[in-house]
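Morning - flavin-adenine dinucleotide inputs below, output right after.
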Amino acid sequence: MTSPAPSPSPGRTLPETARTRHRRLREQGSLDRGALDAVLAAGFLCHLGVVVDGTPMVVPTVYGADGDTLYFHGSVASRSLIASPGAGVCVTVTHVDGLVLARSVFEHGVNYRSAMVHGTPRPVTDPEEKLAGLRCLTEQAAPGQWDYARRPSRKELAATSLLALSLDEASVKIRTGPPDDGDGPDAALGLWAGVLPLHTTWGALEPDPALPADLAPPAHLTARAASPA
Ligand SMILES: Cc1cc2nc3c(=O)[nH]c(=O)nc-3n(C[C@H](O)[C@H](O)[C@H](O)COP(=O)(O)OP(=O)(O)OC[C@H]3O[C@@H](n4cnc5c(N)ncnc54)[C@H](O)[C@@H]3O)c2cc1C
């Protein structure tokens, strides 16, 4: 994901808690709430870490970010979603921007933007908030699809869990730039060093073979296909 949206919360600072205080690689941490919003806006896939029946599970899942809330959804039978409201969770969002190739293997690294959110999610039961949260999720991954595709039926809504997690306790970390060993003794080794950038793009649309041949894709999808993710 390479095109962060403009921050909806300029000038806000992330509160530092015992959990969010950066300890290692502190210089990559940021207290800028706008940086957090940009990392969240640039993606739609997170990893939800939760202890289920005494065992840690880290579950990849889609999310929607709306102001101070992160929404996740899944089947009402999803074990990680059932366990989450009673337990603390840790959610991460990660974007890899490049490989940092140093003179020494020790100094190799990754250019990245990442966010971590700690908290206890609440199940969303209010029908209006549930629809709004599902819309947020859908639009974050596939902008334009909420208005284009059929909306969830009552039965489908009943089969779907939606959880809301506050962004009150969140951190963001960003690494940019070249390797760190350009001014150390290894600079004299005569080895190439630098960054191999990673860019993500959407491909061309692949129509469902079951479609009638004359059914054209909607404009919001043709505009997005083969563009930077
Ligand atoms: C793609 C990628 C690859 C990485 N590879 C490595 C690696 O190989 N080795 C390595 O040591 N580190 C790596 N990191 C950094 C790693 O994520 C941690 O930030 C770092 O290791 C410090 O971890 P810690 O357990 O000491 O956390 P601490 O510094 O103790 O964490 C304290 C608090 O800081 C915040 N925090 C920590 N890490 C992050 C983060 N990445 N994003 C947002 N908030 C954070 C959290 O709120 C956390 O509770 C990588 C990060 C990314 C995104």
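Note: Confidence is low (pLDDT under 50) at residues 1-6.

O.
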